[in-house]
Design goal:
- There is one protein chain.
- By secondary structure, the chain is α+β, with helices and mostly antiparallel strands.
- It has four domains: about 190 residues, no CATH class; about 220 residues, no CATH class; about 140 residues, no CATH class; about 170 residues, no CATH class.
- The chain is about 50% helix and about 20% strand.
- The protein is globular.
- The two termini are about 40 Å apart.
- It is found in: Cell membrane.
- This is ABC transporter permease.
- It comes from Roseivirga echinicomitans.
- GO terms for molecular function: transmembrane transporter activity.
Length: about 800
């Protein structure tokens, strides 16, 4: 029976090549999108799960509260882990990760910049699983100032030669390379390139042999703890209360503060929803839900195409069904045979989809365009193979079940007489499915356009300072910093350069956080502020403006005598006039005073509102040299700066970037998300158009005699197009009306992630419907045009 069904199926598919091709194309695109999406989701949802001890590794983060102060931090005091290990037997070991002071590696008088350098503990390789290419993973960090490096760093420093026992310089210290590990997988929340054994102890943590509780309130490193098997999180937190009271609260009571410990499992960190200000980049679980819905919608659209084309062609198959029934086929066997057709087509589409997904992932630039990176490892994941097979079976059933039930109902007598006509209910089902297709396609396209409007709004919004024509030169090397005055004087002689400044902090990319004492309600109160540090040229260089008072002149003798705040800070403190208000750092004995109020500007990305800010004077050269230049001939400017730099600091490479590009990078994740959704929306529309092409071609072929008669009676081609297209036009407009509020609601929820939101563009909603109308009209027009070109006698000769 199966052999007979297969013959019937192959014969029918071969006879109807056009419709078979359309079905295969739609199903292949739908299943390909599903396979890619499954691999993407598997990669995203398996963050940090490749570590051998992932189920027992936890990270400590902290919520600190006090009057005027509240912040979540992913960092801990480096004294915390050793103290906990002494008092809690359930801790097996720990590893702290403290950022290096400089982000540079020097080897044989050549300096390389590398940002991901951390000091750590010997058991770091028990916390994070590293695949070593050189060295012994168990002992590589046993000795102080030993260092392990990634394969990328090894090749940059030593080429293809061995790195073991080579001496390199980091942070002004000579360290010995004891291991080289393979580059970390992309799906890890904490990426590092260099690990140095030995976390420096802080002198102020112990005073005269007595532990200083304040040290625990000053986090400086990421803390990861490996717990023993059977660890009970609830019991640990209950026991921690006594530790908290003993070590945290002595200082906590001084500042009327509270401390709360959070324990995060390693695999949960990347998609943790709690906002932590200094955390590593996180994923957005809402995006995964959106991508999954759109991916499944594409597959469902392909199923709808199959259903529509199968039921629409019922009239052509009526005689075949009638003959098979007369020859003894019962209703059940017919249903199974028709369902078998869909399974065969879905199976062929699956093979094509696997090949397409493999080419897309391994040999195209699609992943780089989306900012994602994972391999085609489908056959190494049995769970995914099983899920895809289940998906294919469901696709075959969804695609073939209704057509099988529908076609099996055909009455053999009417079919053989040639007067079988499709029921009105069948037509309504097809119209309903077409409507659903357009609701999805127009909705996704509308959402994509609204997302693009929001991203364009963010990139073009005024920030309150000049982000363009700002060149940032990294000068973390101590020699480069000592040469700052020389460089500044030479740079300022260039007519293309307007201003030069220096700082460790940049608005939009690097902002500090400090607790101050401020005058409020007639007394000095503690208050947390965001902070920037800059010299006397800082304001001019960034084009910021003052609302009140003055900025630093450069003759200030110390950095804690005068302060400049922003409007938000003055407003929060209730200062009608901020000038001469008392202010100082937390431990400052002689308070300074406020000398100026700068107009508010966005010193974070536009995901965040403007917060209270203090600009602190620092006349010492910072790690960044900031150059403001006039527009035009940037290549000549860079060449001149490079020449001056190499002459002044010959052994230190010029490392520069443009501030506006760095600010655009803040929205890279949003841009990638929009690119992915744009790709999916195009795919949605394309799959819908595939089905619409087949349906239109069939409808036109069924009405070819009507078209011939109308041509004989003098109808123009455009009039025929209007008649054929009018029903579809009504469906598209209705789909637009349904999808517009849904798209608006979804994008409104997405835009809540931003403090500043673009006004809703109704033009984007209208343009989506117009695009759908124009594309559909084009398809119908082409098909009608080819049909109407034929001589009417060809279609009417047998009437």
């Amino acid at each position: 029976m199966n052999v007979i069904n297969l013959k019937f199926t192959l014969r029918f598919l071969w006879r109807n090549k056009f419709f078979t091709l359309l079905n295969l194309l739609g199903l292949t695109l739908g299943i390909t999108a599903s396979i890619w999406l499954m691999l993407y989701l598997k990669n995203e949802l398996s963050y940090d799960q490749y570590h051998e001890n992932a189920d027992r590794v936890y990270r400590f983060s902290h919520l600190i509260k006090a009057p005027g102060v509240e912040f979540n931090t992913a960092f801990s005091a480096n004294e915390l882990s050793p103290m906990l290990a002494e008092e809690f037997p359930e801790i097996e070991t720990y590893a702290r990760f403290s950022p290096a002071n400089t982000r540079e590696i020097t080897f044989q008088n050549e300096t390389f910049r590398e940002r991901d350098i951390f000091y750590t503990d010997p058991d770091a390789t028990k916390i994070f699983t590293l695949d070593f290419e050189e060295g012994n993973v168990k002992s590589a960090l046993a000795e102080p100032l030993s260092v392990i490096i990634s394969k990328d760093i090894s090749q940059r420093l030593f080429g293809n030669g061995s790195a073991i026992n080579k001496i390199i310089e980091i942070d002004g210290r000579n360290v010995k390379v004891t291991g080289v590990f393979k580059n970390q997988p992309e799906n890890t929340h904490f990426k590092f390139q260099v690990l140095i054994s030995g976390v420096a102890q802080r002198e102020f943590a112990f005073q005269d042999g007595v532990f200083n509780s304040e040290a625990l309130w000053n986090p400086d490193c990421a803390n990861y703890i490996l717990m023993k098997p059977g660890f009970d999180k609830a019991k640990f937190l209950e026991k921690f209360k006594a530790f908290n009271e003993k070590y945290y609260m002595p200082f906590g009571r001084v500042v009327s503060g509270e401390h709360f410990l959070r324990i995060q499992k390693l695999a949960d960190i990347h998609y943790d929803t709690v906002k932590i200000e200094d955390d590593f980049p996180k994923g957005n679980s809402n995006n995964l839900v959106v991508f999954t819905i759109i991916g499944l919608s594409i597959l469902f659209l392909a199923c709808i195409n199959y259903i529509n084309l199968s039921t629409a062609r019922a009239g052509l198959r009526a005689r075949e069904i009638g003959i098979r029934k007369v020859l003894g086929s019962d209703s059940l066997s017919l249903k199974m045979a028709l369902l078998f057709e869909s399974v065969v087509q879905v199976s062929v589409a699956l093979i094509l989809s696997i090949i397409t997904a493999w080419l897309l992932i391994e040999y195209s630039g699609f992943q780089a365009l989306l900012g994602v990176s994972f391999s085609f490892n489908l056959f190494a994941q049995p769970d995914l193979i099983g899920l895809i097979l289940l998906l294919v079976i469901c696709t075959g059933l969804i695609s073939g079940l209704y057509p099988a039930l529908y076609l099996a109902k055909i009455k053999p007598v009417k079919a053989l007489k040639g007067n079988w006509v499709a029921s009105r209910s069948g037509n309504w089902v097809r119209r309903g499915l077409v409507l659903f297709q357009f609701v999805i396609s127009i909705g996704v396209l509308t959402g994509t356009l609204l997302m693009k409007d929001q991203l364009n709004f963010l990139q073009n919004k005024e920030l309150g300072y000049d982000k363009d024509q700002i060149l940032v030169i990294n000068s973390q090397d101590s020699l480069a910093q000592t040469k700052f005055k020389v460089l500044k004087e030479v740079f300022e002689q260039n007519p293309q350069i307007e201003a030069v400044s220096s700082s460790n902090f940049l608005p939009g990319t690097n902002v500090g956080q400090t607790v101050f004492m401020v005058e409020k309600d007639g007394e000095m109160q503690q208050q947390e502020f965001k902070t920037l540090q800059g010299d006397a040229n800082y304001l001019e260089t960034f084009g910021m403006t003052l609302k009140e008072g003055r900025f630093y002149r450069g003759d200030e003798t110390r950095g804690n005598a005068y302060f400049v705040v922003n409007e938000t800070a003055a407003r929060m403190l209730g200062w009608e006039s901020a000038i001469d208000k008392r202010m100082g750092f937390f431990h400052q004995e002689e308070f300074g005073r406020v000398i100026g109020v700068v107009n508010d500007f966005n010193f974070f990305s536009l995901h965040n509102p403007i917060e209270p800010l203090v600009i602190v004077f620092n006349n010492q050269p910072g790690s960044r040299l900031i150059v403001r230049f006039r527009q035009g001939n940037e290549e000549k400017l860079i060449a001149g700066i490079k020449s001056i730099w190499e002459e002044t600091i010959p052994n230190y490479p010029l490392d520069y970037s443009f501030l506006n590009q760095s600010l655009r990078d803040q929205y890279e994740a949003d841009k990638n998300q929009n690119t992915l959704i744009t790709s999916m929306s195009i795919l949605c529309i394309f799959v819908s158009l595939i089905g619409l092409s087949g349906l239109s071609a069939f409808n036109v072929s069924q009405r070819r005699k009507e078209i011939g008669i109308r041509k004989v009676l003098g109808a123009m081609t455009r009039q025929i197009i209007h008649i054929i297209f009018s029903d579809t036009l009504k469906i598209i407009v209705l789909a637009g009306v349904i999808s517009a509020p849904i798209s608006f609601w979804v994008i409104s929820k997405w835009a809540e992630n931003f403090a500043y939101q673009a006004p809703v563009s109704f033009f984007s909603m209208v343009i989506s419907v117009v695009v759908a109308i124009l594309l559909t009209l084009s398809i119908v027009s082409i098909i009608v045009w080819f049909t109407s070109r034929k001589n009417p006698t060809e279609t009417l000769r047998y009437e």
